[in-house]
Design a protein that fits this description.
Low-confidence stretches: 1-16, 81-99, 403-417, 455-461
Helix content: 55-70%
Strand content: 5-15%
Mean pLDDT: 76
Structural class: alpha+beta
Number of helices: 14
Number of domains: 2
Strand order of the largest sheet: 6-7-5-4-3-8
Distance between the termini: 90 Å
Radius of gyration: 45 Å
Order of helices and strands: HHHEEHHHHHHHEHHEEHHEEE
Largest sheet: 6 strands, mixed
Shape: rod-shaped
Length: 467
């Protein structure tokens, strides 16, 4: 279609509003219908009601040729698009370049030539110039299109008067110029210019909407990629925390107790060695259950019963592991509050409490050299608190490196200092706070506060779980 936008502009129109697309399509179809109607109308006026003359054959052949070439050009452009940048010939410019001459321009010149030939045979084809004006206004630059439209307007006025098929100068001087010969083509040219510029503005608006839509799609795609990458990092860090707080700590305990068992067997104390092997078996069974549940749904098997039960088992296993390693170590759990309320804690809070307790006791066992650790779980209105204190060697809290959210860096460097990162990330995830107090030779106290709404009341009498 000669008035159809090129491929990019057609895509732009499709990306624009439905109203704009409807208007552009209506204008384009109306142009083709108008050209066909005016061409047939001119042929009917020229051929019907007059005695056959040789020029009638030429009119019929030229009409069919013009209609066929016009139809072929519109069908080709609709299906494949006219190659706007193909340079068939070049006209030298003052700047040294060349003026591109595309197949669309060649097609337009052929149509114009055929129309002029018909005008030389019969002035009935004057009105067919209007759709040709639209073609010039569409395919040429605005100024060139307006100038070409003016030239066509002059031809449409002059040829019916003084052309080969016109009245001639003698009759024009005798009878004068009828206003219709001048007003009709002139108004048609003005209307063509106005409609063409309106069409151009609508097409530019559609192209602008298309570009905005493409930019929006690009931004959405980028956001989707960023969310995907953030999700991967978050999932990687979550898995790292789960593995660190479950399997890694369990395997560390197995390694520690296995060394103690080996030493006992080497010294001939088979009873002690058997006892420590039983601790290894129990720890391995626990970690196997952890691994199976970790694969299934990444939840802690200890939470299948209750929070207090999970913490009690954790305290007991930590004490047993340390004692099996030959250390004089005692660990206890104290619950301040309604134990049933503790067991009604939301799953994220309960899981966080168990994981924080695992990490805290693992740090006590690995670094504190303590002989005693006390864990206290307290319930307050709107808050649950977990405190873990030991009488170990302590450390300088100010020497702690800033916690980073790039957990994979610590793991990649073979660092064992992922525990604090894991604890901090877990507490932050549920909106809680973590505080560590310690000094060299004075032990360490870790305190976690987690917000809870609903089920908690003021602290009531609790229980003490001394192992």
């Amino acid at each position: 279609m000669p008035l159809a936008p090129p491929a990019s502009a057609a895509s732009a129109a499709s990306g624009g509003s439905r109203q704009t697309l409807l208007v552009l399509t209506t204008l384009r179809v109306s142009l083709h219908v108008m050209f066909a109607f005016l061409l047939i109308f001119g042929a009917v006026l020229a051929l019907v009601g007059s005695v056959y003359q040789p020029r009638h054959t030429a009119i019929g052949v030229l009409t069919l040729t013009l209609g066929g070439i016009y139809l072929a050009g519109t069908v080709y452009e609709k299906r494949r698009g006219l190659p706007q940048r193909l340079r068939l010939a070049g006209f030298p410019l003052a700047s040294g370049g060349t003026l591109p001459f595309s197949p669309a321009h060649l097609w337009l010149l052929v149509i114009t030539g055929l129309w002029l030939a018909l005008m030389c045979l019969d002035s009935s084809f004057t009105w067919a110039v209007f759709p040709v004006m639209f073609l010039y206004l569409h395919l040429l630059r605005p100024l060139a299109g307006v100038l070409a439209t003016g030239a066509l307007c002059l031809l449409a006025v002059a040829l019916p008067l003084v052309g080969p098929a016109g009245f001639g100068l003698a009759r024009l001087r005798a009878e004068g110029l009828a206003p219709g010969y001048l007003v009709g083509p002139t108004l048609g040219a003005i209307l063509a210019v106005v409609i063409s510029f309106t069409y151009r503005a609508l097409r530019q608006d559609a192209a602008h909407q298309f570009r905005l839509a493409e930019q929006l799609r690009a931004v959405q795609a980028e956001l989707a990629q960023q969310q995907y990458r953030a999700g991967k990092i978050a999932e990687r860090e979550r898995l790292a925390r789960e593995i660190h707080d479950t399997l890694a700590q369990g395997l560390s305990s197995i390694v520690l107790v296995s060394r103690a068992a080996s030493n006992a067997l080497e010294s001939g104390d088979t009873a002690l060695g058997r006892e420590r092997l039983q601790v290894i078996e129990q720890s391995a069974s626990t970690n196997l259950a952890e691994a199976r549940r970790f694969i299934h749904d990444l939840a802690s098997p200890a939470l299948d019963s209750s929070v207090v039960g999970a913490l009690s088992s954790l305290v007991a296993s930590t004490q047993a592991t340390q004692q099996a390693a030959g250390l004089d170590f005692r660990c206890s759990l104290t619950v301040d509050g309604d134990e049933s309320a503790v067991n009604r804690l939301p799953e994220p809070i309960a899981s966080t409490l168990v994981r924080v307790a695992q990490g805290a006791l693992a740090n006590v066992a690995a670094h504190s050299q303590a002989s005693q650790a006390v864990m206290t779980l307290s319930l307050w209105p709107g808050e649950v608190a977990l405190d873990v204190c030991d009488n170990g060697v302590g450390f300088d809290v100010r020497a702690l490196s800033p916690v980073t959210d790039k957990a994979e860096v610590a793991l990649a460097e073979g660092s064992t200092g992922y525990g604090l990162i894991s604890l901090t990330a877990r507490v932050d995830q549920v909106g809680g706070t973590l505080n560590i107090e310690s000094s060299p030779g004075a032990g360490t106290a870790l305190s976690v506060r987690l917000p809870v709404e609903g089920v908690l009341a003021a602290p009531a009498s609790g229980g003490n779980y001394d192992c």
